[in-house]
Amino acid sequence: MTQIKPAVLVARAIFPEVLDKLRQHFDVTSNDGDELWSPQEFAQKLQGKAGVLTTGAERVGPELLAACPELRIAANMAVGYNNFDIAAMTARGVQATNAPDVLTETTADFGFALLMATARRIAESEHYLRAGKWTRWSYDMFAGAEVHGSTLGILGMGRIGQAIARRGALGFGMKVIYHNRSRLDAATEAACQARYVSKDELLQTADHVMLVLPYTPDNHHTIGAADIARMKPTATLINIARGGIVDDAALAQALREQRIAAAGLDVFEGEPKVHPDLLTVPNVVLTPHIASATLPTRLAMAMLAADNLIGYLIEGKALTPLNHPASA
Ligand code: GLV
User: Fold this and answer.
1) 220 is catalytic
2) Are 124 and 142 in contact (CB under 8 A)?
3) What is the pLDDT of residues 118-162, one digit of tens each?
4) CA-nearest residue, atom 5 of ligand 1
5) What CA–CA distance (Å, rounded) separates 124 from 283?
6) What mean pLDDT do residues 98-102 have?
7) Where are the domains positioned within the chain?
């Protein structure tokens, strides 16, 4: 007798090899046209599905869960999971998983790239050159901020924050300070050569502030006008964490008034929309949420999400669980 395979949905277009792997175990509905579904369409596509591979953008909250009673697992191919309502998922007996570790070093590379581009005004000067404005050398043309030997302040010291700290301390001789919900143990602090400080001290003393903390409703606009006002006028602010952590309107105003030197942003509140004021200030480097975007890393993230679906629905255990629903 042939066994009926569980049905799963893949919410966006994805690597063919990941779909092939899923098809070995599941009846797979894929989004080959890479359509952007409304919440209602998403709920409709999820009817009768036991699992879903999400990208980090699709909301899994009480309404969706109520509309999709057969759903047993949502596997995010992202380390961040603010698209999931974990409490609601747990209450409904739905497993949640994310994709940690496989993206740590790649994302830290990008954080550093964005820091370098921002501090050394790479995007701004490239636009100037392309516009044909470069007619002669001058001693202070696009003079930026030092990176080596400066003070790097990291807000959010999880795996990615630590990988950025190591790059700063060991590669660039930076003094690394950090603030986190909880202080790291002494051995981890020593490996990162990082010193724990309060959020205020970090904002006041860092030459470069790097945001790597997860988004939660509690830290919505945790970097607002008052926080930006505490930063040095020569400082840069880098956000590779999540939109909504920074008040983008307040940041655009501070950049326009040169109350801080520059910002580098990979994430935006309400993305892919970008606050219009950010598009008109020159001293900001803007990238479209690509910190983990190398093909090997994105493949590893998607494979981990697929392995979580297989692990949970076929073998009974998720690899990187975020919750422990009663039915798990
Ligand atoms: C990307 O933003 C991720 O959370 O993996």
Assistant:
1) no
2) yes
3) 999 999 999 999 999 999 999 999 999 999 999 999 999 999 999
4) 78
5) 7
6) 98
7) 7-102+295-313, 104-286
- Amino acid making up residue 300: A
Mean pLDDT of 30-44: 97
**Which position among 72, 167, 242, 275 bears the catalytic label?**
242
What does the CA dihedral 187, 191, 192, 195 come to, rounded to 10 degrees?
A: 40
Active site residue 324: no
**CATH assignment of 104-286, given 3.20.20.70, 3.10.310.10, 2.40.50.140, 3.40.50.720?**
3.40.50.720
Q: Do domains 7-102+295-313 and 104-286 have the same CATH topology?
A: yes
Sheet containing 7-10: order of strands? 27-30, 7-10, 51-54, 73-76, 95-97
Instruction: Check residue 44 and give its pLDDT.
Output: 98
Ligand 1 nearest-atom number relative to CA 80:
4
Higher per-residue pLDDT: 33 or 1? 33
Å from CA of 28 to ligand 1 middle: 24
CATH top-level class for 7-102+295-313?
alpha beta
Which atom of ligand 1 lies nearest, measured to the CA of 289? 2
| 100 Cβ below 6 A of ligand 1 | no
Half-sphere exposure of 206 (CA within 13 A, CB side): 34
Q: Is 289 a catalytic residue?
A: yes
80 CA distance to ligand 1 centroid (A)?
Answer: 5
Residue to substitute in 55, 58, 79 for testing ligand 1 pocket (most ligand atoms within 8 angstroms of CB): 79
Q: Dihedral through CA 302, CA 303, CA 309, CA 314, nearest 10? A: 170
Tokens of 284: 């900001």
- pLDDT for 276 beyond 70: yes
Our CA dihedral for 220, 108, 250, 276, rounded to 10 degrees, sits at -110
